[in-house]
Each structure stands twice: as structure tokens, then as C-alpha cells.
Amino acid sequence: MIDVIYENENCIVINKPVGTPSLSDPSGDADALTLTAAQLGSELWPVHRLDRTVGGLMVLAKNKKAAATLSAEVGGHGMVKEYFAVVEGIAEGGTYEDYIYRDARISKAFIVKGERRGAKHASLDCTPIRTVSTERGERTLLRILLHTGRYHQIRVQLASRGNSIVGDGKYGSRDNGAKHPALFSAHLTFTVSGEKITAKSKPDLKIYPWSLFSEEDYE
Q1: What is the pLDDT of residues 10-32, one digit of tens each?
Q2: Are 144 and 156 in contact (CB under 8 A)?
Q3: How far apart are alpha carbons 66 and 64 in whole angstroms?
Q4: Which one from 51, 98, 168, 175 is the annotated catalytic residue?
Q5: Mind listing the domains of the chain with CATH numbers?
Q6: Residue pair 142/84 in contact by the 8 Å Cβ criterion
């Protein structure tokens, strides 16, 4: 069962499970769009997507008009998207501005110096919530506000500053205590048909490294 957070006549907000692809992909594994459509018994349209390894809030449209409106909102950065992340070390807050280059051959992103062919500007706000000391070292819970939606943006921007996301071996994490990168889509705000919608969710606090922090830290 896909967890439904919010639903109206135009859209549905779900909690995409970690490890489930957002849309159909070459793996052939059941995807969030298909699973939710089957659960509702109606056709749905994609608006945006989350990486397979990222869980949390995702919006699906119930009709073509809503899909066009919401897709334009995402493309124009009108949809507010916030994430929780747990990183290695002590992270500094602030606005991170970089240029990111995607190497499609190895499915990985890199920070590059200044503008160059194929590189795209990336921006986010990073707010540290709490740092705890563990036998693996310091771990910091962050709130991330995305201003742009680049490929692996949060993962590579944090890693480039020495704060790899826990469990994200692709971008430098040495902490194998997490099965997936500790990144979660936690807060969405958007407008459709004149209605402003806000949805919130939390990761599974029983699972490491989310379990290092109290429930109040995720408010």
C-alpha cells in the first residue's frame, strides 16, 4: 500500500517508499506512479520525481490540466520543496551556490568551477538542526530548502563541503550503517486550481541514522 498524505480532485500527495522508483524504469520494478494509480483505480500523471533511493513526499496529478499546471510550477521553481538529511561531520548552514555537471556515462554529478558547457547552476539553503556524537563520529541533521532541482544536487553539494550524506557511498560516505542515503522529502507547498496545499512527512525514526534524533527535531 502506498501511503497517501493528501488528495483532492486534481492531485494526490504520496509518501514514496525508499527503494521504489518514481516512474517506470529499465529495472522493471514496480514504480510509485503505477502502484498509486492501481490503488486509486484511475490514471495519474507525473509532475516531478524523486531518486529511487530517496523516500518521502511526491505529487501526482489526476488530470492533464493539473499535470500541466503543476509541472510548470515545478519548472518555474514555484513549488517549495524541503528535505531532511543526515550528514557526516558538523555542517555549516547557509546558501550553497554551485555549478553542477552531470556525467550520464557513470550516473554521477560533479561540482565544477564556474560556467562551462553542460554545467547548470544549483542553489539550496542548508539549516543545521542538531549535531550528535556517535561511535562513527559526528552526525548532523539538516533541513534543506531547494531552489533548483539538479541531478543529485543535494548529495553532491553536501559532499563537496565534506558532509557526505550518511549511507551515500557514491558521494563519499564511509558509514555503511544506513542501507540508503539518509535523504527524505519532508515538506511540499504548491498551488493548483487556486488552492494552496502544504504537505508534511517524517522519515522512519526507528531506522538509523534518523533514530539518532528526537521526534521534535523533525518538526
Answers
A1: 999 999 999 999 999 889 899 99
A2: no
A3: 5
A4: 51
A5: 3-218 (3.30.2350.10)
A6: yes
Q: What is the pLDDT of residue 193?
A: 84
The confidence score (pLDDT) of residue 75 equals 80
Give the number of C-alpha atoms closer than 13 A to the C-alpha of residue 191, restricted to the C-beta side. 8
Give how far Cα 30 sits from Cα of 24, 42, 145, Å: 7, 17, 29
Residue with cell 519548472: 75
- Whether the Cβ atoms of residue 5 and residue 13 lie closer than 8 Å to each other: yes
pLDDT at 18: 95
Peptide bond into 26 cis (omega under 30): no
User: Amino acid identity of 50?
Assistant: L
For the chain, residues with pLDDT lower than 50 are none
| Gyration radius of the chain over CA positions | 17
How far, CA to CA in Å, does 107 sit from each of 33, 81, 104, 199?
A: 22, 23, 5, 30
Q: What are the residues whose beta carbons fall under 8 Å from the beta carbon of 41, sequence distance 6 or more?
A: none
- How high is the pLDDT of residue 139? 98
Cα–Cα distances in Å, from 188 out to 47, 81, 116, 144, 168?
Answer: 13, 5, 32, 12, 24
Rounded distance, CA 192 to CA 128, Å? Answer: 31
pLDDT tens, residue by residue, 33-58: 999 999 999 999 999 999 999 999 99
Told to judge if 29 belongs to the known catalytic residues of this protein, a careful annotator would answer no
